[in-house]
Amino acid sequence: MIEILNGMHETINYGNSLGLRLYHNVDYEDYPEHWHVGIEIIMPVEDTYRVGVGEQWYDLGTGDIIIINSGVIHALQAPPRGERMILQFDPALLYNLKEMETLLFMMPTVVFLKRQDDTELYRFLKERLDKIICEYDGNSTFREASIYASLIEMYVGLGRFEVYSDEHKDKHQSDSKQQEYIEAVMSACTYINRKYMENLTLEEVASVSGFSKFHFTRVFKQYMNMTFYEYLNSKRVKRAEELLYNKEMSITDVAMNSGFSSLSAFNRTFKALRHCSPSDFRKKRLTGRMGGTGSD
Q1: What angle do CA 50, 55, 56 make, to 5 degrees?
Q2: Residue 277: what are its φ and ψ, rounded to 5°?
Q3: Closest CA to 251 of 230, 276, 234
Q4: How far is the CA of 71 from the CAs of 108, 217, 233, in angstroms?
Q5: Confidence class of residue 247 from pLDDT cuts 50, 70 and 90?
Q6: What distances in angstroms separate CA 63 from CA 20, 108, 192, one per listed residue?
Q7: Does position 294 have pLDDT exceeding 70, yes or no?
Q8: CA distances from 133 to 58, 126, 216, 262 (A)
Q9: I need a surface site. Which of 30, 31, 102, 135 has the fewest CB within 10 A?
């Protein structure tokens, strides 16, 4: 299944212009820890499958769905017999759509949905995943457009489930007021995504939302589960991760091209969020080996 592997990094060969591939995997083969830029969706259609992320193992039964986000290190274990559908796609497919970059950023490392739970979200995703499989295996007119549309619908459903979940709701707010807040937060995130390389301030982004600094701070925390500065730093660290894959760039160059004002601020923030130095992160991702704390 893994065609191009450099250390722990798998380069996905999509083999088409869509930036997406889907295959019926029947290999009795385990795959060690690896990562790729593409997002991966796995659903067993016969027998079981195991997915390991960090110390956590997910045991998938027939019809269960797991979504592994971009850049997540994971391992796979297959039973002696069985079949599973594996869909991989380039997240850049969705980046140009309004709010999608924020949604992909908000997504947890893993989304695991069990068939037996039969939730509304599971049924929604399963229906669209089945449609993608049918279209991919067929040769109908507008096949690629149909697959793309179903993929967008899947992530719209995930996004609405996330932002409208009970943990974000305030029973004292009307639906229209909550919708106003959601739109303001999404607008602020879109602004941050475009301007994160600049010296952004809380006051500047709050003004974009149309709220006072103090009101914006509370609303942003309510719907994003993080503060404005946590989101901004996470966005910068995410960009730094992408640049660290380029061995030709020095750590200092990575820091300056990720929106950090100094190397010390970059090292401090990166270690706080990723629990390792930028140089150790680079070493592990490129070689699969983690050294000591080292010096940057």
Answers
A1: 45
A2: -75, 160
A3: 276
A4: 12, 29, 18
A5: confident
A6: 21, 21, 38
A7: no
A8: 23, 10, 42, 47
A9: 30
Could you tell me how far CA 89 lies from the centroid of its own chain?
A: 11
Return the SS3 of 52: strand
Q: Which of 235, 229, 227 is nearest to 259 (CA)?
A: 235
Inter-axis angle of helices 228-244 and 278-287, to 10 degrees?
Answer: 50
Residue found under tokens 């212009």: 17
CB 47 within 8 A of CB 85: no
Cα atoms found within 13 Å of the Cα of residue 198, Cβ hemisphere only: 10
Average confidence (pLDDT) over 43-62: 96
What is the pLDDT averaged over residues 16-24?
A: 84
10 near 36, Cβ under 8 Å? yes
* CA-to-CA separations, 203 to 226, 258, 262, in angstroms, rounded: 17, 21, 22
Q: What are phi and psi of 31, to 5 degrees?
A: -120, 125
Task: HSE, CB side, 13 Å, CA atoms: give it for residue 93.
Answer: 23
CA distances from 11 to 7, 35, 247 (A): 11, 9, 16
- Residues in the chain, overall count: 296
Percent of the chain with pLDDT over 70: 91
Task: Quickly state the pLDDT bin for 41 (edges 50, 70, 90).
Answer: very high
Give tens-digit pLDDT for 207-228. 988 899 999 999 999 888 899 9
Cα-to-chain-centroid distance, residue 172: 32
Mean pLDDT of all residues belonging to the chain = 88
Phi-psi region of 72 (alpha: psi -120 to 50; beta: other; left: phi over 0): beta
* Token output for 35: 């990562």
